[in-house]
Amino acid sequence: NELLGALSTVVGVVERRQTLPILSNVLLEAREGELMVRATDLEIEMEVSIPVQNLKPGKLTAPARKLHDILRGLPEGAEISFESSDESRMTVKSGKSRFALATLSADEFPSLGGVQAETQLTLSHKQLRDLINRVSFAMAQQDVRYYLNGMLLHVGPNFVRSVATDGHRLALSELVMETGIAEEMQLILPRKAVLELARLLDGGDAPVTLGIGGGQIQVQLTNLRITSKLIDGRFPDYERVVPESQDR
Questions:
Q1: How far apart, in whole angstroms, are the C-alpha atoms of residue 199 and residue 36?
Q2: Please, are residues 47 and 41 in contact by the beta-carbon 8 Å criterion?
Q3: 173-176, long-range: CB within 8 Å, 24+ apart, which pairs?
Q4: Over the range 106-116, which residues count as b (16 or more CB within 10 Å of their CB) and which as e?
Q5: What is the pLDDT along the chain (248 residues), one digit of tens a residue?
Q6: pTM higher than 0.90, yes or no?
């Protein structure tokens, strides 16, 4: 169940049609008492860690959707074990079931690398989820103005705003809070990262840390880390669009 939960979290990043075969795989890395599961499409990367009984450390990449389907077919609470003696094959065992999966070398698995966070911001799950859910419907899809295919996060010393527009409608949500950030900054999060975040955030009060730097954003949840490239572009001046005085 733990492994299925981890795979269900990251499998949304894995595209069905890939230019590189290794991008259809997930990286599984067994470390001291934990298993790290990572998936990426070169734009966004998700990494979950779960506790395991670790017999021997190692890492390999396995087909993400196949492994996910195998786990979904196993009974609730089933124990599962992985074995691999070389980098081309792994055996998955559970009860009387055995599966052999072709694997690829973990050393070739791409990584977005760690974000050198120049700025950090902490919100609660609920605050970030509300900022996303209130505006995400207005994001553009596959617009040639690529900077509209995402959500603007505008952060100032005492506010956080989310803004999305497709050129026909515009949605803006504002959260008034002390951010600890001295100068205003604007970031455009890609559409896919926004939708994945909306799916994974619950309505609780647990903290979410955003690290921003080097054209990337890293979102740290409890046992999950999401890293995404930011869209490099200039978002329209949304404050000029919103009328200041209305008589209706």
A1: 20
A2: no
A3: 173/130, 173/131, 173/134, 173/135, 175/123, 175/127, 175/130, 175/131
A4: beebeebeebe
A5: 888 999 999 988 888 777 888 899 999 998 888 899 999 998 999 999 998 887 788 889 999 999 999 999 988 888 988 888 877 889 999 988 899 999 988 888 888 877 777 888 999 999 999 999 999 999 999 899 999 999 999 999 999 999 999 999 999 999 999 988 889 999 999 999 999 999 988 878 889 999 998 889 999 988 899 999 999 999 999 998 888 888 88
A6: no
